[in-house]
Amino acid sequence: MAVQSSLSIDSVKYDDDGHIKRTGTWVTASAHIVTAVIGSGVLSLAWAVAQLGWIAGSFILILFSLITLLTSFLLADCYRYPDPIHGTRNHTYMEMVKNILGGVQYKLCGLAQYTNLVGCTIGYTLTGSISMVAISKSNCFHKKGHLADCNISNFTFMAIFGSFQILLSQIPDFHELSWLSIVAAIMSFGYASIGIGLSIAKIAERGHHVETGLTGLIVGVDETGMQKLWNTFQAIGNIAFAYAFSMVIAEIQASNDTIKSSPPENKVMKKSAFTGILITTFFYALCGLLGYEAFGNKAPGNFLTGFGFYEPFWLVDIGNLFIIIHLVGAYQVFAQPIFSIVESWGNKRWPQSKFMTKEYHVNIPLVGIWRMNMFRLIWRTMYVIFTTVIAIILPFFNSIVGLLGAISFFPLTVYFPTEMYLKQAKVPKYSSIWIGMKLLSGFCLIVTLVAAVGSIVGIITDLKTSTLPF
């Protein structure tokens, strides 16, 4: 009786994987998805739609939302393996790939994920500094007029952003600050909403008229034929970057407060994915299409820092402040897994080294005790310096965002989910479903390649006219 009582208590308190009983529903999971998706990618959507035009811009936004929804459904079924309802849980995306596809694919997934994480920290350094510059410019324009020379270099602001990240990176348990994602979510909605509101206000201005078109920028008027081609490819990468979130589906399902085990998690997660992506696509359409209507073919690369909006200057400042706060935290969220994997490897490789393992407790006035480790101090500092230097060398917002979107979209959003589903569901080779999945994967590979090429060409073109501070 005692044994039965103990088991019943455990089944009430704990899930089948030993974690505290999950209590969330499709509503909480939907909120996590919206939080994960809406980020700095919204800033480039007006520019992307301007390159593509009303028809292709709207089509690509809807197409990527449908592809992301499909692959999210596939990942929801792969959360448990081998059976999608009663199988063993996969708590992370990489664990899912390892258990279903095996070691080689697991290593390729790790390479793709960590490349994406490094790229995002570089991109966040760049975007954060651009918003700092925008605040300075906004105040300059307000004081001196919209035609004043308010050009300000963002190299200094990148160094400031990097210096702040060096300090934050030394906090050993920064990844445990759960409130960070809440702040990031509020900031994301804040600056996206400000951008939408300013776009609506600009559209409503009396006498406001800008040039828009079904196919976007006009060849021979706004740009050359080759520029149109490369910018179109780059714009596709920008939209792909905005939708790159599938890799956190497993983490959302496994989270202690996300989805309870009954009804089955895969069914609940599919409902959550549909709701979350529907909300996100609506938000993205507002940012991209209203932004294009507000700016027309002259839409800036970043619709809060490109100064299609000058007034009210304080609202533009608040929007950019929200971006900075969001990216300061987001940098750490993306950098912590990189820090962790290198430090874990070092501790296993040299377990007897005091340089690797010994911690010194340093008392900092008004802050408290700082647990300092020499390897952690040097390695994390060098990493932040590296990302800052790369951002300084390549300070091109749309090209970098497009390249990040291209790098992450095919492998993480399409290839691994489709391959895992085919194996998990034991889909017969050359069946209609198998052929359909392979065609989808091939199509998305082509999209990724053209987006990457367009972004690389954009970087090369920008480098020819860029001046560095060293």
UniProtKB/TrEMBL annotation:
UniProt keyword Iron, yes or no: no
Pfam families (alphabetical): Aa_trans
Membrane topology value: Multi-pass membrane protein
Domain Amino acid transporter transmembrane as annotated: residue spans: 22-460
Tagged with keyword Cell membrane: yes
Annotated Gene Ontology cellular component terms: endomembrane system; membrane; plasma membrane
InterPro entries documented for this protein: AA_transpt_TM
Superkingdom of source: Eukaryota
One term of GO molecular function: symporter activity
GO biological process: amino acid transmembrane transport; auxin-activated signaling pathway
UniProt-annotated location(s): Cell membrane; Endomembrane system
Residue ranges crossing the lipid bilayer per the database entry: 26-48, 54-76, 152-171, 177-201, 273-292, 312-334, 377-394, 400-418, 439-460
Keyword annotations of the record: Amino-acid transport, Auxin signaling pathway, Cell membrane, Membrane, Symport, Transmembrane, Transmembrane helix, Transport
Family (UniProt): Belongs to the amino acid/polyamine transporter 2 family. Amino acid/auxin permease (AAAP) (TC 2.A.18.1) subfamily.
Function of the protein: Carrier protein involved in proton-driven auxin influx. Mediates the formation of auxin gradient from developing leaves (site of auxin biosynthesis) to tips by contributing to the loading of auxin in vascular tissues and facilitating acropetal (base to tip) auxin transport within inner tissues of the root apex, and basipetal (tip to base) auxin transport within outer tissues of the root apex. May be involved in lateral roots and nodules formation.
Protein's UniProt name: Transmembrane amino acid transporter family protein
